[in-house]
User: Fold these one by one.
Assistant:
Number 1:
Amino acid sequence: MNPRKACLACLERAPVDLLEATLWIAAEHDPSVVPAHALAQVRELHQQINASLPMLPLSELAQPLLRQLNTLGFQQDEMLPLRAHAALMDKVLQRRRGQPLALAILALELARSLSIPLEGVNFPGHFLLRVPGADHLLDPCGGRRLYPAECRQLLARQFGPQVALTAEHMQVASPLQMLQRLSRNLRQLHISNDNDLAALIDAERVMQLGPVLVSDYLARATLYQRLDCPQAERFDLERALLLSEDPAQRLKLSERLGHLPASSPSIH
C-alpha cells in the first residue's frame, strides 16, 4: 500500500488513526519515514506524560497534558521563514517544534490514549483545542486558556480588527478537516520554499480529503503554471471559474484562461 492509500485507510478505522495518517503524509515526502517507529516515540511520550499528570478528574487533565508537552520541549516553531518540517509530523516529533495544528494533533492522540476528553477547533489562523462543554479554548502551544475576549484578540492579530468572532470560528474540526487543513499548510509551506513538486503532492491530497474551495483550484493551477502544464492549469482555472461567486475574480479568471493555449482537440 502506498503512503497516500495508507493515509486514507487511517480515516476508515474506528476510531480514526489521525496521528498515523499524518505520518503517512510525511512518508509521501520522505520515503525513509517509517510511521511505526514514530508511533513508538509517541508511546514513550504517553508513558512520560502519564507518570507526570496530577491526580485530577479526566475532564480536568487537558491543560496539564498540554503543559507537560510544553515542559518536554514541544513548542510552536518560530523559525522564519517557516519550513515544511513545522507541519511534517515525523520532524515535529524529532525537533519538538511545530505549527499549532501539528502540536494539536499530537495532543489529541495522547489525550485519546489517556482517555482525556479533548477536541480540535478549526479556529482560523491558529488551530485550537477544547474540552467538550468547556467555556474556554486551549492553545495547543503550551495550554493557555482562551476565553472569548482572548479569541477576539487572536483573530484580530491574524486578520485585523475588522473581522468579527463568530460561532463558525469555534466549530469542532473533524479528523478529515484537520488532515485537509494540514495538507493546505504543507502546500503553502512547500510553495513558499520553492518546492513545487512537493506542493503539488499536497495540493492533490487537499482535493481528495474533502470539499474543495476556489482557492484550492487556484493554488494547484498556479503550481501547474510554474511546472509548465497548461492543460492541467486550464482544467483547474475552469473549475475555479465555475465555483467563484466574485465578479472581479471571475473576470480575472476569464482573462487568464484567454491567455492559455487552446485545449487539445479530442480524437474520435
Note: Residues 15 and 242 are 36 Å apart (CA to CA).
Number 2:
Amino acid sequence: MFPVPLSVLDLSTVRAGGTSADAFADTFTLAQAADRLGLERFWVAEHHNMPSVAATTPPVLIAAVAARTERIRVGSGGVMLPNHSPYVIAEQFAALEAMHPGRIDLGIGRAPGADQITAWALRRTQEGLGHEEFDEHLRLVRAWLSPSGVRTGMGTTLTATPAASSYPDIWLLGSSDYSARLAGRLGLRYCYAGHFGQLDPAAVIALYRDAFVPSADLAEPYPMVCTSVITAPTPEEADWLAGPAKVMWLGLRTGRLEPIVTPEEAAHRLAAHDAASLVATKYVGTPDAVREGLAELVADAGLAELMVTATAHDVATRVAMLESLAA
C-alpha cells in the first residue's frame, strides 16, 4: 500500500496523429482506471492554445469525468482564476457539486495558463491580477461557495446556487512560496505544482505549515504535492517511454508546440541532444524504484496526499503507471 492517498492529474494530452476527441476519450479511460484502482481524486488542467493539450475548460471536463466514474473525487488542477469571473466559477462548481455531491474539488491557480494573446481573448485585457486582487477574488469564491454567501450593499445575500446541500472542497495551487503562504493564511488545502515547479517541495510545504491558520473549512494543514512519473518493467524501457515528455519540454522552450510524439520519434529527435541531462519527468524507472522515491518525497515533505501526472504518447502507458503505483 502507498503511504498516503494517491491521486492523479491529467492534461488530456493530444498525441501525434490523434484528435481532441481521442484526447478526451483517453482522459475518460484514465479516470475510470483511477476510480477502479481506489485513487483519491482525479484532476484536470486548464491550458489554452496548445496543440498538445485539449483540457481548456475544467468545469465541462469535470462534469464528463464525474458522470463516467463512480466514487473518485473529480476536480480542477486547476481553474486559472484571473481568466474568469469569480462568480461564474462559483456557480459552475456549485452546479457540479449539486450533480455529484461530495465528489467535487475546486483547485484554483493564479497563473494564466496561456500566452498574452490568448489571455486577452479570455479576459478581453492583457492585464493580470495583482496579489491583492487575486486574494479578494479567491475570498469571494470561497464565500459564495459557503452557507454564509456574500452580503451585498442592497441588503441581500449573494450565493452561488440556491438551496445547496453540500459544497466543493477548495484548494489553492501554485509553484511559488506566495501561494503556499496564502493557502496557509486562509486555512485552505494546498497543492504544490512539483511537476514543473523549481522549488524544494519540502521547503514549500514547510512554509505552508508555518503560515497555516485554522479555518471553518480546515482545522489542520492538508498539503499535497503533484509530481511527474513514468514507470516500466525496466529502467531502459522507462527512459524510452519518457522520451516524448522530453521532446515536449524542449518544444516549450524553443517555441515548437506540437502534439505528443511517439517514443520512436522522440528517440530520433533527442539523438541530437544530451538527453540524459533533460529532466522533463521527475521520477522515471521501475515501479519499485519510483515507489521508493515517491515514499521519500512523502516523508521528507510530510505530505497528507500525493498526486502524480505523466506525459506519454499513449494512455496505456499512463494506466500502467497508475496500476504499478497502486499495486
Note: The chain has one domain: 6-234+283-326.
